[in-house]
Amino acid sequence: MQPNHDSSLRTWAMFCHLSALIWISLALVGLTLPFSNLLGPLVVWQLKKRESDFVDRHGRESLNFQISMTIYLLVLLFVAAVGILLFLTIAGGLAGQDQGAIAIVLGIMGGLGLALLLSIFGIFQLVVVIIATVQANNRSFFRYPLCLRFL
């Protein structure tokens, strides 16, 4: 393989991973685009998968991880929504009683717990994507943890 060609393939393999982080830059400017973590890897992989097995493997791995993270996030949000509905039902029944203050404190703790869990989720995603990007640059392959294999 020619040095320039090898460098180009490593760059595209790195983009397969880094493009998943587009949601961070969108969030910083106040835009929320659902599933934006999937769009970048999908586009890069579709454009470059036929050029190299190396880029194809990295693209598939990145996309599988992002699909997995999206599924996990949707399940987490569903469980949180059910928890919020249960909390509101219980708190509504306790309104005006002595236990109402306890319900409010529990609600605040639950909200903080959810915020912490979502933060950990985002940091985990950021860290493993950076690790995968470095591995791609080093001509290595990285298997994401907690990744369901769809492709």
Describe this structure in words.
The chain is mainly alpha-helical and 151 residues long. It has one domain. The protein is built from 5 helices and no strands.
Could you provide a short overview of the structure?
The protein has helices at residues 3-18, 22-28, 36-48, 53-94, 100-137. With 151 residues, it is mostly helical.
Helix percent band: over 70%
**How many angstroms does the end-to-end distance come to?**
27 Å
Order of helices and strands: HHHHH
Q: Could you name the ranges where pLDDT drops below 50 across 5 or more consecutive residues?
A: none
The number of distinct structural domains comes to 1
Q: Biggest β-sheet, characterized?
A: none
Query: Which term fits the overall shape?
Result: elongated
Measured by DSSP, the beta-strand proportion falls in under 5%
Count of DSSP strands: 0
Mean pLDDT figure: 89
- The radius of gyration over CA amounts to 20 Å
Structural class: mainly alpha
Total of helices: 5
Please tag this protein with its features.
151 residues, mainly alpha
Element layout with pairings:
Elements: H1 3-18, H2 22-28, H3 36-48, H4 53-94, H5 100-137
